[in-house]
Amino acid sequence: MRFRFLCLCMLGLSLNAHAAFSIPGFELVQTAPVETSLNNPDLADPVTIWCQQFDAAKTTIDIAQFYVTGEAGEPLEPVLEHLRKAGERGVKIRFLMDQHGLRMSNEATLTAIKSIPNLNFQLIDFGKIGGGIIHAKYIVVDGKSAFVGSQNFDWRALKHIHETGLLISDSKVAAQVQAIFNVDWQAQQLLAEGKPVPVLNQQVVAADESQSAYLVSSPNAYNPAGVGDSETELPKLLAKAQQEVYITVMTYAPLSYSVKKPAPYYAVIDDALRAAAQRGVKIHLMISAWNTGKPYIDYLKSLQVLPNIDVKVVTIPEAKQGFIPFARTLHSKTMEIDGKIAWIGTSNWEGGYMNTSRNLELVIQNPAMAKRLGELQRQLWNSPYAAALDINKTYPKPHPATAK
């Protein structure tokens, strides 16, 4: 069985060898939900990329995830097989997962990961550090290449969900991603020893916008040297917009994701969007149908009535096999500004992601990448899956199985 899936993955690598839209240092990666018209032949899929990364590893693989879940015969299985092969040939693997992700994880997948040779699996309660969770999804290989994207280590994210990521070969950015992993791995060890985790930044760290591509992260207090603050950078980029902005994100609201009722107000992003629209910038915002529950839908309607803001709700139809919990949705977290700037990351656009949780975002100031990302967004915007938000419509409450 293991050999069969290994062969299938290798076949996929061969078939997809031509699929590569890239600029120096970065390759755009997409998951298009099966049985939709959203596939792009020039964009590689994460299964291919992750298998290639693991096969190329010489010394180390570091992986950080919120949760993990697989199914027999589904796309995560060959990924785990290639990760196992890396461990068997002596590659040292560290796997860091947030403790709060256990409830969403599949026990069989956890067992399979923990059984991989040379793999050190650790849980971290990031709530004891920044107050949120490890929500970032990324991989670092040999400290020289990395993958950052919206794809969770979840078979559904590799087959049934709209996702966007980046393969990173830029050595400076990859080193920064490695530094973030090292900070969080050390934090886990300190927590396990009952020791405090030191704050790294007392002041907000500005991103180095002189670079054509740069990494920003959250929370600012626990970013390593040289990594800017994503919560500060997003409004700054929106303030630079002059003509048009396209945004795809699973959830959007000026509220903090919280167990508190009512949820705390969080206006950082909302204020920036409204300010851009007020000065004439056309804002195109796509959100998942999971975002239509109250009070979120009311905030979205308050945007839709404004000049220069258009909101669309994306609904991915049920798969032929029937309902799949926690699947068939928009999960990408991307922004394109004026055909000049691309933003690709792991944060939803509400409180709790860019201020208290560990998330990573890439800013690429490159017209070619911005144009290709914009095309990907317009493909979804103009598809039959995206419908204009109707301010007079009473939207159904999202299915209770469709949790974040």
For CATH, the homologous superfamily of the largest domain is named as Endonuclease Chain A
Number of structural domains: 2
The number of helical elements comes to 9
CATH architecture of the largest domain: 2-Layer Sandwich
Helix-strand string: HEEHEEHEHEEEEEHEEHEEHEHEEEEEHE
Gross morphology is: globular
Biggest sheet character: 9 strands, mixed
CATH class division of the largest domain: Alpha Beta
Structural class: alpha/beta
Question: What number is the mean pLDDT?
Answer: 94
Order of strands in the sheet with most strands: 12-11-20-18-17-13-15-16-21
Straight-line N-to-C gap: 32 Å
**What portion of residues belong to β-strands?**
15-25%
Kindly identify the CATH topology of the largest domain: Endonuclease, Chain A
Gyration radius from CA atoms, angstroms: 20 Å
User: How much helicity do the residues have?
Assistant: 25-40%
Secondary structure: number of strands: 21
Unreliable residue runs: 1-18
Keywords: Signal
Signal peptide: 1-19
Domain PLD phosphodiesterase: 130-157, 326-353
Protein name: PLD phosphodiesterase domain-containing protein
